[in-house]
Amino acid sequence: MTGAGSCAWVSDSKGYRYDATQPDGTAWPDIPDCMLNVWETVGGVSGCPDSCLINFYDSDARMGLHQDHDEADLAWPVVSISLGDEALFRVGGLSRDAPTKSIWLQSGDVAVLSGAARLAYHGIDRVKLGSSALLPNGGRINVTLRVAKAPIS
Ligand code: MD6
Ligand code: FE
Question: How many CA atoms lie within 13 A of 61 on its CB side?
């Protein structure tokens, strides 16, 4: 896991949070323009994300059902870009026990959680190793763009 932008996600002995610096105290790199372009194209909002999370999944990585609710203003969308091996994405409703649907996300697919779906429970059930040739050693990279604290103009 790593990040970019004016704040990104860290986990340490103090817990999980958005932080303005990396664990070694240095600033996060800028969010790449190619990622900002995706946000502009699909986000449907004016104002840029201040936070970009970059997660690597190996063949047995999973992400349990969760809501993205740690951002200051939930009116902003979350935009998620899938790269590399296909992943089985499960999305449900506003309660953990609501019915869910599953969809295979392929490299280049973009998922947006916004509006009524902004707080939908979602997760990754599995990654299909070797289903994409993008990464030399396989696996999947998920990039999520968010306005975590305040939009960048
Ligand atoms: C993933 N995605 O695709 C995990 N969150 O690896 C997320 O947790 C996610 O796809 C918010 C909005 C879209 C997402
Ligand atoms: Fe999420």
Answer: 16
Please tell me what DSSP assigns to residue 104.
Answer: E
Given CATH 3.40.605.10, say whether it is the number of domain 2-146: no
Q: Using CA positions, which residue lies closest to atom 6 of ligand 1?
A: 142
Delimit the domains of the chain by residue range: 2-146
Name the nearest CA neighbour of 84 among 34, 134, 127, 125: 134
Least confident residue range of 13-17, 62-66, 141-145: 13-17
Mean pLDDT over residues 31-60, rounded? 97
Asked whether 134 and 56 are in contact (CB, 8 A), the reply is no
Going from the Cα of 90 to the center of ligand 1, the distance in angstroms, rounded, reads 10
CB 127 within 8 A of CB 140: yes
Q: Tell me, using a 6 A CB cutoff, whether residue 144 lines ligand 1.
A: yes
Q: What's the mean pLDDT in 81-91?
A: 98
CA 84 to ligand 2 center in whole angstroms: 18
